Amino acid sequence: MNIVTHFVNPPIPDRRFDWSAVDADTYDGADDAGPCRVSGSGPTERAAVADLLEQMEDGEDWQREDAQTYRRDNSQFGVGA
């Protein structure tokens, strides 16, 4: 899993969508991509990663396993916890 985050900062007063996160190893962004189109968003980088992991845990089996592994491997850094 290779989580990539972006500071989006859309031109709206609502800051809940300032950050986005995707798994660069699986994300392709196409409308017909199905489970490979999962992304997270949030007011902070950490919140966007947490949102991505939550969505992956609700997705396909392989996504759930990747999200759980990521949380376990990065828990000492407070990422995805």
Give a brief rundown of this model.
The chain has about 80 residues and is an alpha+beta fold.
Characteristic key phrases:
globular; 3-stranded antiparallel β-sheet; 17% strand; 2 helices; single chain; alpha+beta; 81 residues
Mean pLDDT: 83
Radius of gyration: 12 Å
- β-strand percent reads 15-25%
Number of strands: 3
Oligomer: single chain
Series of secondary-structure elements, N-terminal to C-terminal: EEEHH
Low-confidence stretches: none
Termini, distance in Å?
Answer: 16 Å
Strand adjacency order, main sheet:
1-2-3
Structural class: alpha+beta
Outline, from the CA principal axes?
Answer: globular
Q: What is the domain total for the residues?
A: 1
Structure commentary:
This protein is α+β, with helices and mostly antiparallel strands. The protein has helices at 45-57, 61-74; strands at residues 3-7, 19-23, 39-42. It has one domain. The protein is built from two helices and three strands. Strands 1-2-3 form a three-stranded antiparallel β-sheet. Helix 1 (45-57) packs across helix 2. The model has no long low-confidence stretch (mean pLDDT 83).
